[in-house]
Amino acid sequence: MPREAGTPNTTQCLAAGGFAGMAVDVALFPLDTIKTRLQAKAGFMASGGFRGIYSGLSSAVIGSSPGAAMFFLTYEQVKAGCEKRVSPKYQPFVHMFAASAGEIAACLVRVPTEVTKQRLQAKHHPSLSTAIRGTYAAEGLLGFYRGYLTQVVREIPFTCI
Question: How far is it, in rounded angstroms, from Cα 115 to Cα 112?
């Protein structure tokens, strides 16, 4: 199917999404670590306090680019497929539907990295490799998708706004 002028191609979607996602995640990572430690069962100070504020950054960086790229790629593809089939007066709904589909796809990548990142931030594991092995040994592959549905339900209203 030919692209409309101004519509980004697949490579542009992947690159733009990847760079944007990584930039946001790295910039806001210290705030996310503090939030995670405040919510930890062990308490803020026992989970590391303000020390090691970048614990888990490797997991976030590894997952942020693919997750954001997956969102933008899915969004653009779904939007392109729906725009021609829907009346112009309903185009805002096309964007909301495409964004929701993008979030569902992105969470397939984002949730496993988020689970791993939070376990590192809360000092449950000393390194990325032990966090991955420990999660898999204790919970199997589904352990990486703990909270997937909750994450999707939380993200969709934000993405529609």
Answer: 5
